[in-house]
Each structure stands twice: as structure tokens, then as C-alpha cells.
Amino acid sequence: MSLVDELKSAVTPRAALLVVGVLALQLLFIASYVGALHHPKPRDVPFGVVAPPQVSAQLLGQLERLPGNPLDPRTVTDEAEARKQILDRDLDGALIVAPRGRTDTLLVASGGGTVLSSALETIFTRVEGAQQRTVRTVDVAPASPGDFDGLSAFYLVVGWCVGGYICAAILAISAGSRPANRERAVIRLGVLALYSVLGGLGGAVIVGPILGALPGGVAALWGLGTLVVFAVGAATLALQAVFGIVGIGLAILLIVIAGNPSAGGAFPLPMLPPFWNAIGPALPPGAGTWAARSIAYFKGNDMTGSMLVLSAWAVVGAAITLVMSSLKREPESEPASAGGPGTPGRG
User: Fold this and answer.
1) pLDDT: is 171 or 290 the higher one?
2) Burial level of 188, CB count in 10 A (0-12/13-18/19+)?
3) For residue 16, how far is the Cα from the chain centroid?
4) Where does residue 236 rank: exposed (0-12), middle (13-18), buried (19+ CB within 10 A)?
5) Backbone phi, then psi, for 74, in 5-degree steps?
6) Mean pLDDT calculated for residue range 92-118
7) Among 54, 83, 166, 244, which is least packed by CB within 10 angstroms?
8) Edge-to-edge, what's the strand order for the sheet holding 45-50?
9) CB neighbours (10 Å) of residue 26?
10) How many CB atoms lie within 10 A of CB 194?
């Protein structure tokens, strides 16, 4: 057999196409992660200013003109309202200007990301110093001592997402690369739902009672984890039902390559470049990370949008899986070993 024949035998055209696809995913992974995270800096951070009327307008103008537009400042009536808006996740910080004296107060929320809190401190140390004033920092929603750099919520959600798409991929390809009928699709979705409940509970218990990494109720994190796992798994099943084995690669593209660096985990959303800042909240890792931090540090505030995003992925993914399974098509052939020696495998 010639070298060309050996090559064709060892690497089929289909395998060659899949290898090219893997190479593309590898390069997209590098481009996405490095592109999102190589040069983080705050952009248009929602920020409150509580100041006497005679200095408020001037201070707002000064903050709006800072190089790089790190802040999106707006006037807040008083300190209590500023604290409330931070806990409601409408603001990421606020400056309380002392009407008398030269020491102002910077309110931050490290539970939403310690990197952003540190960036705000750096900005206002410089701004206040230029005015011969000093600033003291008060953390309104501090990250747990067991949650280094506020990353535990992100890693928890990443774990849930990984479990979701791996479980779905195994279910999808274990007996044929496409669901052959509605009954099989329903069973796979049912198994995925059970797996999601167990995976959500396991993650919540690990980060809570076992490691003490995240505060917040186990029940709330359990519910969130169940939804995250099922949403990612249902989306993976849907993509695989439409595109075959290539759909699993598309799931990795959406969840891992696009979703993880844009989730606001390593760097909160206001510190990401515009593209990743825009797509992050619409993908399961970003929606899950936002909701997990809300549960842990912000009394469950501002979760509606994230929960709707995750629910949409779950419902649409399940619906597409069921619709595709109902379409008539010839069962795909499978290895004989799937049904035992000498017998055809069931699709």
C-alpha cells in the first residue's frame, strides 16, 4: 500500500475536517481569552456621587472627563440611597463627599469583583490627591474571606457549565450521533434534568458548607446550579441534534470560548472590552456568574435578567431537541459492538 493510500486509510476526509475544526477552536480559544483579558481597564462603570450642590456639577464633569472614560457618574441623593443602589447592583461604587473636612468616603462592593473595587480605589486616590483631599474606602458588600479575589462564583458556574455540556455530549453520542426518535430525546432530557439537580446540589454544598467559599443559602445556589447545568446541557443537545457531532464543537465555542472570558469572572463586565462586555450577559456563564454573586453578596437582588437568559437557553434547547427528534430520517448506522457481537447497534 502506497503512502497516499496509508494516509487516506489513517485520516479519512471526515476526520481531516474535524481536525481542521479543532484547530479553529484552538485558535479562537486563544484569541478570545487573550483578547478579553490581556488589558483590563474600567469603562463606563456605573458610579454614584453624593456631594453638596455647589460642588456636585463640577465633580461630575471632572469624573466624566477622566482619560479612558472609566466612569459613568450620576448624582445620588444621599449615602443611604447610594448604598441601596450598590446592593441593588445598579451602581458599582459611589463617592460621598464630606461637606466639611477633607476626607471623603468611597463605597465599593468587592463581592462583585475585587479587581474592580481596587481599580476604583486607585482612580479616586489619584483624583482626590489632585484636590488635596483624602479618601477612605468602605466595602458595602465585601467578598467572603474564603473567596479569594471574588472568583469562587465564577469557578462554580464554570464547573456547572462543564458538567452540562459533557453530560449532554455523552448522552448524545453514546447510542448514535443524532436522537432517532422523540422517546429517546425525552429520556435524554430527563436524564439531563436529574443530572442537573444532582450537579447543582453538589456544587452548592462544596462552595458553601464544605469549603466556606461563598455565603448565601445552599437552596438558592442549588436552584441556580440546576438551571445552569440544564440550560447548557439542553443547548448542547439541541446543537448536536441539528449539526451532528459538529454541534458539540459549537457548544464548546459558545460556552467555553465565547462564554467564559466574557462572564465577568476574572474581571467584572465594566473592565472587559466592548465585544465581550456585550455578549457576556446573554451567555450561560455570564448570566450564571452574575446570579451567583447576587445570591452570595447582594441579597439576591437584580437576578431577573440572568434567570430569564438561563431559562431561555433551557427552554429553547429542549424545544429544538424535541422538534429535531420528531423529524423523520433514516437511523444512522453504528458500530456492531453497540448491540453486541454480530448484531447491529441501535441508533
Assistant:
1) 290
2) buried
3) 32
4) buried
5) -150, 150
6) 95
7) 54
8) 71-75, 45-50, 93-96, 103-108, 134-139
9) 11
10) 11
Give tens-digit pLDDT for 122-133: 999 999 999 899
Q: What would the pLDDT profile of 172-202 be if each residue is shown by its tens digit?
A: 887 655 555 888 899 999 999 999 999 999 9
Computed over every residue of the chain, the mean pLDDT equals 90
Strand bridging mode 103-108 / 134-139: parallel
Can you tell me which residue has the cell 454541534?
247
Q: Map residue 143 onto helix, strand or coil.
A: coil
The DSSP string of 245-273 is: THHHHHHHIIIIIIITTTSSSSS-GGGS-
Give the whole-angstrom CA distance, residue 158 versus residue 260.
7
SS3 string, 45-98, reads EEEEEECCHHHHHHHHHHHHCCCCCCEEEEECCCHHHHHHHHHCCCCCEEEECC
Backbone φ/ψ region at 301: left (φ over 0), alpha (ψ -120 to 50), beta: beta
Rounded average pLDDT over 114-123: 96
Q: Cell for 328?
A: 423523520
Helix 218-243 to helix 152-173 angle (10° resolution) is 40
